[in-house]
Amino acid sequence: MTTPALILDNVRVSYGDGDSQVHALDGVSLQVNRGEFVAIVGHSGSGKSTLLAVAGALTTPNSGEVQVAGESITGLSDKDLARVRREHIGFVFQSSGNLPSALKARDQLELAARILGRRGRRSNDELLDAVGMSHRADHRPATLSGGERQRIGIARALVGGPDLLLVDEPTAALDRNRAHEIVRLLAHECHELGVAGVMVTHDLEVIEHCDRVYDMVDGRLTPRD
Ligand code: ADP
Ligand code: MG
After folding, report:
1. Element (H, E) at 6
2. Residues with CB under 5 A from ligand 2 (ion)
3. pTM here?
4. Nearest bound ligand to CA 22?
5. How far apart are CA 132 and CA 106, in angstroms?
6. What's the Cα-to-Cα distance from 219 to each of 10, 43, 144, rounded to whole Å?
7. Spatial contact of 73 and 84, defined as CB atoms under 8 Å apart
8. Whose Cα sits closest to atom 26 in ligand 1?
């Protein structure tokens, strides 16, 4: 059996101290295997962004253990955390409003590949095809719809062939039909490419496309049956 792409073991993150201390993550344990797409549902302030920041090697926890693709990130320098992100992790953001406006869709992927200095086994054209955007390859973000920009954002996150895909509220800016399409696409790509996906959301409608669902309340995670 291969190691899970993500392991969180009794992870705690707190902000502030004394009476004003907030436990953003209060003993969180989670394992996500390659090819699995997992949803974490919680209200604003429940700790979702903190969980993604820890899983995404953007920050290290106060205590507990985090492993990404078998490597412990505890005690790593900022430089090594950046390497772990580059080598193993893809990020999809809320609205993919962060695509450089001057670049055509295909060039968004090319830029990402150059920055990473690596690519996965799929070419950029194959990725554009997989997200249903081949016919928009020469379009710039301003001429794409919200759903289309999100598709480019997903393709860009997959350019390096990540082990772990972290997705933050991907449906926030989309209508219902597009929301379902995007989450179905994310699940499909994780299954197809053997990527471990974690999506945080408060959109209860779309979690039917996920393999497992957890509720997050006050920094604690509980599996749904
Ligand atoms: P979510 O993404 O679910 O809205 P967050 O992870 O952003 O939740 O926040 C969890 C808790 O931690 C909240 O109570 C929030 O106010 C607090 N928090 C988050 N970031 C900071 C910070 N940098 N400093 C102090 N408190 C923070
Ligand atoms: Mg948040």
Report:
1. strand 6-15
2. 48-49
3. 0.94
4. 1
5. 13
6. 11, 11, 36
7. yes
8. 15
**Residue 172 structure tokens:** 């926030």
Which atom of ligand 1 lies closest to the CA of 50?
A: 6
Cβ-proximal residues to 123 (8 Å cutoff; 6+ apart), any chain: none
Query: Is ligand 1 within 6 A of the CB of residue 47?
Result: yes
201-217 burial string, b = 16+ CB within 10 Å, else e? bebeebbebbeebbebe
State the Cα–Cα distance between residues 4 and 134, nearest whole angstrom.
32
Angle of CA points 177, 163, 112, to nearest 5°:
75
50 CB within 6 A, ligand 1: yes
Phi, psi of 107 (to 5 degrees): -75, -25
Whether ligand 1 lies within 6 angstroms of the CB of 49 is answered as yes
List Cα–Cα distances, 27 to 13, 51, 212, 223, in angstroms.
8, 11, 19, 14
Q: How far apart are CA 165 and CA 32, in angstroms?
A: 11
Q: State pLDDT tens for residues 29-65.
A: 999 999 999 999 999 999 999 999 999 999 999 999 9
